[in-house]
Amino acid sequence: MRTRTWLVLLLSAVLAVGLIGMTRGASAGPLDRPVAMAAGEDQDDGAKEKESLEIKPSDKKGKYWFKKSCKTCHGKGAEAGEVTPLIKTIKQWERYFRKDKHYGKETLQDTFDAEQLIHIQFFLINHAADSDQPETCG
Asked: Is the pTM value of this prediction over 0.70?
């Protein structure tokens, strides 16, 4: 089940990257780049060699970024409402990240950098209500 979840996450990320790139044009946000990000790439000089560094999603990093970045506004009793991995199913979390909306107005890319978003998404999906290992991230 864990492998299936990881594959679904990876495919969702690849699809999201492609869809975002098609709808936004050339100067969109960090998720327009593939999951394998270019290291040492200078945006002004496309002639430089690109060394590919694959971002391997991590539960530990996802939980860290979720607590650090999300729980400040989405903790228990918070005005923005409590958010934990358990509030959605795997499919609901996938749909949330595909829509790429935070509060329905700003994109997730406006709130997180691409690497943080990959880890947070991985954590939330792996610990969703219907996952093999549901978790609250208290």
From this structure: no
